[in-house]
Amino acid sequence: MYNESFGSSLKRGYWAMPVAIRALITLNVAVFILQIFLQIFSSSYSNALIQAFAFYPDWQTALFQPWRMVTYMFLHGGAFHLLFNMLWLWWMGRAVEESLGPRTFTVIYLGAGLGGALFDVMLAPFLGFNPVIGASGAVYGIMVSFAMLFPTMPIMLFLLPPIQARYVVAGLIAIDMLLVGSTDGVARIVHLAGAGVGYLLMKAQQGGQDLSRYILPIEQFWYRLKGIYQKQKSKPKNDNMYSVSDVEIVEETDKSELDEILEKISEKGYDGLTKEEKKKLFELSKKN
User: What predicted TM-score, i.e. pTM, was given to this entire model?
Assistant: First the structure.
């Protein structure tokens, strides 16, 4: 362990991240690398990518190109823009995802990003129709969620004494409020709206609402597609030839336990499983 290489340590740290955060950081970094490669060949290519997937805060875009309200979250204007968003997401998002589960975390993240875009549409006639890119609105929703879950958690900032999380997040929101309408090119309204939507979603979750149910149908659809693909892959080549290489062999006792766990997931979602059930599901999945 003490002689572990940098690459091995980086790989171990990457796979140790919660699943939703790992997926989001991977997507954001991958898209930014694509932006860099396009910029190397020609700035017009990089600009074309931004023009194709950035969000333009007008009703026509929101109605007829709604995918932009999601794709804009994965584009960034520079390395520092990406770095700060991903650092805040990793610092505060980890505890949020571990507390709420990946589905609820994803609903808050995407909900804050979507809310930021829609709120920008409403205020664009007063503040200007400027294209929006970046994950900041979604990240602000996660930061607010962290402050609500762990309000007194000390946060270490550069050259400052430990400050409670609620004051750090409130301070960042206050700065954005003071700079609304400035010409610095930062979508302050998206930040503020993302924070507000994050707050409302967390209040709903704490009030007994199960936010994970909004992700569950998408996940079930994905598993159905995956199952169809696996069945097609394992089909025999002809009527007289049968292959067992892709067959999953599970004992009858394991089958019944697996069926019970999957039924519970379909009703309450993965976040509704106990630690023992999650462990059992992981053990059964290793037998694939």
Answer: 0.78
